[in-house]
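call fold(seq) -> tokens
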Amino acid sequence: MVGPYNHYMKMSPFADFRVADIGDVHLLTTCNLEEALQDIEAFYRKIASAGVVPITAGGDHSITYPILRGIARQERVGLVHFDSHCDTAHSYGGSGLHHGCPYRNAVESGLVNPERTIQVGIRGGTEPLWQYSCESGMRVVHIEEFYEVGCREVARERRSMMGTGPVYTPFDIDCIDPAFAPGTGTPVVVGMTTFEALQTLRGLRGLDIIGADIVEISPLFDNSGITSLAGATLMFELLCLAAESPARSPA
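ret:
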């Protein structure tokens, strides 16, 4: 069970704020990726127009781009991105819409400010695919640097980069080491523990979070259920962070 009280932040978001589960995004087709992403974008435009801050459970990482298209329409947003991969690759198999390129698309579409983007936990053998991150001005924190400087220093740098502007926070579960979160399609060893991930999220307190997502959880590979539990715990923390954002106040 996750919630309803957050002992660290000393809040009960379901009691103190207006929180609702608004269900799944209805897709008119699951056979055409481009049309499915358009359905997601339209859904989140309605959410944004209603003044709602979405905390989303994926889905693979391809969903983040249409979510940003739906909610990041007033100004470019900053990103605090947790992952083992940068997800700034080019087209794959003839398509530029896949789970390995949402942030390249978001920057090139003018939705995300790369100089207000930090990608934390990066590692693995696909580094050559992510050159765009550094070329565009994103800050890439490899897992080795994360362990060398620690959660607090990474949090300090994030806060300095983000300032008072809007921030979106995507969390790919494969940022966490597969010993703690095995239920994902692209696991990479030597990741964060669940505690380190939670503590690093807590360093976002005070930022203007306009949305967040937890993606790439695969129940098929999660026999013990610990990946889903980790995802739900992190999602609850993101909900509390968004509720505490300076732009919002208790209902």
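The longest strand covers residues 112-122.
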